[in-house]
Amino acid sequence: MSTSPSEPLTVAALYFDGHSARAWPATLSLDGDALLLAAEGLSRRAPLANLRLSEPMGAAPRLITFEDGAHAEVRDHAALARLLGATGQRDRLTVRSAFDLRMVAGALALLVVVLWGAARYGLQWAAEIAAPRVPEAVVAGLSRQTLELIDEHMLTPSRLSEDEQSRLRGVLADRTTLPHALVFRHGGEVGANAFALPDGTLVVTDELVALAGDDERVMAVLMHELGHVELRHGMRMLLQGSAVALFMTWYAGDVSSVIAMAPTALIQSGYSRDMEREADDYAAAALRAQGRSPALLADMLQRLSESAGRGRKNGAGWLDSHPDSAQRIERLRGRA
Amino acid sequence: MNNPFENTPPSAPADPFASPFAVDTAPRSEALVFSGRGGEYFGIWIVNLLLTVLTLGIYSAWAKVRRLQYFHRHTTLGGAAFDYHGDPRAILKGRVIGFLLLLGYNISFEVSPLLGMLVLGLLAAVMPLLLMRSLRFRALNTSWRGLRFGFDGDPKGAYRAFLMWPLLSLFTLYLLAPMWHQRMKRYQLDNARFGATRFRFTAPVSAFYRMYGVLLLLLLLGMAVIGGMVLLMIEAVEGRRELAVLVPMAVLAGWVALFLLIQPYLTARLQNLVWNSTRLGAHRFESHARARTLYAITLTNLIAIVCTLGFFAPFAAIRTARYRIESVTLVSAGPLDDFVAGQKQAVSATGEETADIFDVDIAL
Asked: Whole-structure pTM over 0.90, yes or no?
């Protein structure tokens, strides 16, 4: 337990006084609780507690900074380690962990677990809490922009007569008290499809109306879409997507923004399965409250998947964003 | 005995031959040396990433300081390393302000276009000042041999470099963009100093036009090559439909390879242009980074990063930094010991962080 070694420990350093760029070759040694610096024509002594020692970073020099801004640069790491050993100093955990292989491996594993947990649970939870707090004006603005984008690139004006359109609007208005706006478009390539925007705008394609054959089945699909609106699924997906985008931009930002965007697009590709089930449940409850059977929605799902089977031209769209249709049909029939 | 500091005044006559740096009076070259290693930096990077994720981004300010310290301290010139002194709390404050500005900017356009334009105008008015402060923060928190760098640019110059010239170049369909770039670099470097010694920037506007002109020619040449290859391929796959899918893939690969050229080309050429025409007092710099080497580094980095889901990123950062740093040499006209300190100033990090989040990288 000897605290004072027989041979005095010295460490070579370059000393800079903070007033000029002059390098003073110096030696450092311990003097009780103080550090002693000696250079040609200069010496200073400072209590260890008043000195700042930069963290070890591989071969990079370590800097010992005095209170007045002067510092000593040490490149002899082995000698400095012996000197520090004599003082009983230890580095902070964040510093040690960055240079210890086991610690790095542990950090890597922990990072993977945390990211998985955040993606699986944390993100959904945060989006669920944040979605109702988004200002109405923002929701309306986003929905308007989305519809403009869709009109520009995917859909064309509806070919249904004005009478037919207002008749369906009237039917829907009798079925729900939620604020909504029902609009019609011609699907073309998109085929039979219906979707909801976060502000309650419901878009239905002519092809879906034709595939349904009667109003009741159209209403069943619209109840499902209203479920997405009421439960704020669209806003939640958007928030989750934005959070992922923000993280990816920050993570891969210096590589390429294109690479940063790819996973975001994948994650934003549609509602989650849980959300679809929730919207189905909402529709089933609404249909029963109206004295109608949830089997109507199951029926529509069946028709959509059959028409999808006949070819991609009609009906594939709605199912693309609505996976597991067989399971869902069974589930809805069970509620009938 | 009560005074813990037993200072002998540095004015005491010292033997000039005691210092290894005191004897050189003839011009001599001091190369910048970078000693960072990928495996080592990976440790810092992964711990930074983990803590940043766990603290929902708050640790990113501390992470930034550790990252910059790693790169600064591994950069050696004339036997001494650089250092970075930024205060993480100041950087965090800047990041919060930057995040709020970005949020306000994005939301205002959703609410109404008029409000959006108003916020955009406000940002345009504030941005030059933020960039000016960012330059000051970065300079004052960088040191070498115990002396801080500094930046003395004024708001008037900032509005010219970061608002007037971008607008002028926009209104002339970017014909004035090279001139804007030269004015920006001139503002950055003519106002920079090391201790009390000023930097001087002498690159003429014509050099910037030449740099962009060559880039434009390279891009046109690349497009012609891609076009020619496509024609050859179409002829080759004629009649074999299963091979036809290769053509669009080849075009895409060609475009990606071509557009990935822009950034390394500009980085290498700009670095050479700036440092070869910058003086620090009587000293000058030489930079001989090669665009094709940097292009090869960037391309291989990108492939490795994609293949490792991003985990090659710290190694890539080290490779790029090593090449860029070690391309620069200081040609000293006299002893490096002769620099003296300027006055010390406190500075806020807000500007730098805001500039970062708005993706305006104006690093020297």
From this structure: no
